[in-house]
Amino acid sequence: MEPVSYDKRIPMMVNCYFRDMNEVFKKLRQIIRRGGYFIMDIGDSQFADIHVPTHQILSILAENNGFSLYDDTILRKRTSKNGMTLTQRLQNINYQNRFGGQDGLLRTC
What is the pLDDT along the chain (109 residues), one digit of tens a residue? Predict the structure, then answer.
């Protein structure tokens, strides 16, 4: 994303968002019982014509923290200014207590 970014802060902002969300999953891991779940309303994004599949990246981070995606429902589709189709989704995420522990995906913010 960095070579085409119109604002050099955007790659860092995107990385920090996912790093923060990884911390949220770590906290949820401490408070949700095995077999419990939470529901997340999330939309994907795009910056500088680069699609950021937020729902997919968050699903990977959740799995790395012992969760699994139980259901993924598209609530609506929208079109960006450049015509790219983006979605808003409702994700039902179940806690399985299978911690993958792969924090190395994210850089320090």
Answer: 455 556 778 888 899 999 999 999 999 999 998 889 999 999 998 887 889 999 999 999 999 999 999 999 999 999 988 899 999 999 999 998 765 555 445 555 5
Residue 62 burial by Cβ neighbours in a 10 Å radius (0-12, 13-18, 19+): buried
The token duo for 99 is 């911690």
Cα–Cα distance, 87 to 44 (Å, whole number) = 6
What does R_g of the chain's alpha carbons equal in angstroms? 15
The pTM of this model reads 0.80
- Contact between residue 99 and residue 29 where contact means Cβ atoms under 8 Å apart: yes
Sequence letter at residue 70: Y
48: left (phi over 0), alpha (psi -120 to 50) or beta: left
Alpha carbon 72 to its chain's center: 13
The number of angstroms, rounded, from the C-alpha of 6 to the middle of its chain's C-alpha atoms is: 22
Q: Report domain extents, the chain.
A: 2-104
